[in-house]
Description:
Blueprint: H1 3-26, H2 29-38, H3 46-63, H4 74-97, H5 104-111, H6 119-135, E1 145-147, E2 153-155
Helix pairs in contact: 2-3
Region (Disordered): 140-160
Amino acid sequence: xxxxxxxxxxxxxxxxxxxxxxxxxxxxxxxxxxxxxxxxxxxxxxxxxxxxxxxxxxxxxxxxxxxxxxxxxxxxxxxxxxxxxxxxxxxxxxxxxxxxxxxxxxxxxxxxxxxxxxxxxxxxxxxxxxxxxxxxxxxxxxxxxxxxxxxxxxxxxxxx
Length: 160
């Protein structure tokens, strides 16, 4: 790694920490506690993870209200559209970065879509993949198991 890459990485970490600090200081204590634990999808389904992230994003939207604009001209419309597009892309990146490692292939595939899909579309694609994985899990030889919606193994003989 070159010294330029190391410097850029350090600058990124500094900016990232400033943004995280600002967000944590801007939200209510209960939301701040949930933000600290929503970082990744570990241990929950794609749908549960999406719901948690959506709640955080909605809280941030409620806090970060833009001032009312009385006259909307073409320049303002273009600016607002660009701002919304950037916000949606940022949310997509946050969502994808929080996925468990076994979704890395799907993450890469989604990021190659041009134009980038919405978070909702990405969530649907990932839920389809998650469902396929749950359907086609092959138990070890001699084992009678099934997986629940979270991917946990259950012995089917124990439930008889």
